[in-house]
């Protein structure tokens, strides 16, 4: 650990002192204890108990995706500040020797790296859209997928709920506008019911994504005006700025148009998703119920350990 760097404070320091999180010396990048992982696994099971009966196709992607697909997705138009790319050494022996000298001298050695064909996955659903497009038109009842992936967003912070690498579970619905808006409405109710059973304070609010720049502010305003995104907020780092732990998103035909995904009737498909921030929910539980899970309220333990 860096000896001269500012030490963690507040909730983050408590999490590290209790052993739930393990400091790596990089803000937003932490190891997790077995207990922390157990709570996430229990919450993962709870999600499945609420959504598993819908018959979603289960798909699991690695935490990296095709750079070409990433570029086509339009992510860089909206969120360039969050993107993470993967670079690698491709030089000769002389370049290798220069690299080692730079490492030994403690100077930047990354200028000799070149971009690879993969980038870090920004959201669990992003690798899915080209896969669905390749399958051809949807069936009459559309399609539903169950995803989970580690995701990366470059926003280092000492807020433990704002990690750079974190897990996202998603249900993603493809179909007609009516099919996908019904899906989102169903999960707006389910999500609140599910989280209320965990005994944490909740607030559902309209929201927007962190679009970049002046044009991004217009996109954010439009997103809020059209009520395309809702978030289920739970106080974690502060009461004044509660953290989004679940999100409910209606993408309209954005991904359908981008990837050429069609309904059975030949129209551009609409999509919607519900996303669960796995680490954030675990943090909310520890924040509001304490670090000893054996002393959590019986009602909460009965939900997570049925």
Please characterize this protein's 3D structure.
By secondary structure, this protein is of the alpha+beta class. It folds into 2 domains: 17-84 and 122-304, BirA Bifunctional Protein, domain 2 (2-Layer Sandwich); 85-119, no CATH class. The protein has 11 helices and 12 strands. It has helices at residues 10-17, 34-51, 67-73, 75-78, 93-105, 128-134, 177-196, 213-225, 254-259, 278-289, 298-304; strands spanning 21-26, 29-32, 57-59, 64-66, 85-89, 113-120, 143-152, 165-175, 203-206, 229-234, 243-252, 270-277. It has a 7-stranded mixed sheet with strand order 3-7-8-12-11-10-9. A 3-stranded antiparallel sheet has the order 4-6-5. A two-stranded antiparallel sheet has the order 1-2. Helix 2 (34-51) crosses helix 10 (278-289). The longest helix has 20 residues, at 177-196. It starts with 9 loop residues before the first helix and ends with a helix. The model has no long low-confidence stretch (mean pLDDT 95).
Task: From the structure above, extract its key features.
alpha+beta, globular, 2 domains, 38% helix, 306 residues, BirA Bifunctional Protein, domain 2, seven-stranded mixed sheet, three-stranded antiparallel sheet
Give the arrangement of secondary structure elements.
Elements: H1 10-17, E1 21-26, E2 29-32, H2 34-51, E3 57-59, E4 64-66, H3 67-73, H4 75-78, E5 85-89, H5 93-105, E6 113-120, H6 128-134, E7 143-152, E8 165-175, H7 177-196, E9 203-206, H8 213-225, E10 229-234, E11 243-252, H9 254-259, E12 270-277, H10 278-289, H11 298-304
Parallel strand pairs: 3-7
Antiparallel strand pairs: 1-2, 4-6, 5-6, 7-8, 8-12, 9-10, 10-11, 11-12
Helix pairs in contact: 2-10
